Inverse folding.
């Protein structure tokens, strides 16, 4: 009974993570401006990989493998926002008018 519960929980977490990653990939083609693309990619990367690695941790019995997965998640959570921040800073320093290119919804424009 416990094995079935672990299998179902692992499958749900991994499918949810793959869905979030797929949405991040599709948003790369939907958005035109680099800051919008970067935001979608970094959010999808952080949440999607967390869900996938959590699912993998639940499926494992070996503590060392779980530790490796957790260290991978920690590494991704530290490097992905840092890389996104550096790309955003580069774009804002090289683009003179970023406000003209950012895509916003109609609710937030005034």
């Amino acid at each position: 009974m416990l094995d079935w519960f672990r299998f179902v929980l692992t499958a749900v977490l991994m499918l949810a993570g793959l869905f979030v990653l797929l949405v991040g990939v599709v948003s790369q083609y939907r958005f035109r401006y680099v800051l919008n693309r970067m935001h979608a990619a970094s959010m999808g990367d952080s949440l999607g990989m967390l869900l996938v690695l959590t699912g993998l941790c639940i499926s494992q019995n070996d503590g060392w493998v779980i530790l490796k997965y957790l260290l991978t998640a920690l590494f991704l959570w530290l490097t992905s926002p840092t890389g996104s921040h550096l790309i955003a800073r580069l774009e804002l320093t090289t683009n003179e008018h970023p406000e003209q290119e950012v895509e916003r919804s109609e609710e937030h424009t005034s």
